[in-house]
User: Fold this.
Amino acid sequence: LNPKYLKYKNLYELNDLSFRTKYEIINSSAVQRILPHYPSFLDKRNTKGAENYNRYCLQANYVSFPNMCLDAVLGIVNRGTPEVNLPDNMKGLIDYATDKGTPLVNIQNKVIENIFKFGLAGILIEIPENVSIATALPKLKVFGGDKIVDFQHYTDIQGLKQIKFLTLDVSRHLYSKKNKNYSYTKIYKVHSITAEGRYCVAEVLAQS
Assistant:
């Protein structure tokens, strides 16, 4: 993983948690970073520490100031009608910017949200498979800084930065036929350009 990502990884997790709901925070493994476990929760026999702490978490008042600020920023940005200038063959992106049919204005809001949370956002533009590049409508995906775990670029002869490879965190719940249940699996999606100029994509399980 990129050293720059590792440097901010804990901060990314804490920032993301600050936007979550009360019960998402309580059930998070990082809850004690929000609500410290004080020694005063322990009794003389050290038998009710966890019970006292859980009661403390449930009684705490969770006021989501970060979400309030984000809503205000998005409100200001969307106060006017956006002006979108695209070539005729790209105007389909206005209503269908993603493979799920997300409008382009929602992509803008997603970028703003991730910059607000993590100070960094990236837009991955992909051409659907088995479609001619000349006629294909690209699909966009937004990733926050917490999902951009590794990257490397170089400067071409025109002075432009070109991505050599990009690794994204696409972790999700996968179904196990052996255990007959879903489990959260750490998965990385690696995008790379070979020496021959070929674009390659591969998903890699973290444990492998």
Remarks:
- The longest strand covers residues 161-169.
- The mean pLDDT is 84.
- The helical segments are 3-17, 22-26, 31-34, 49-59, 65-77, 104-118.
- DSSP finds six helices and eight strands in the chain.
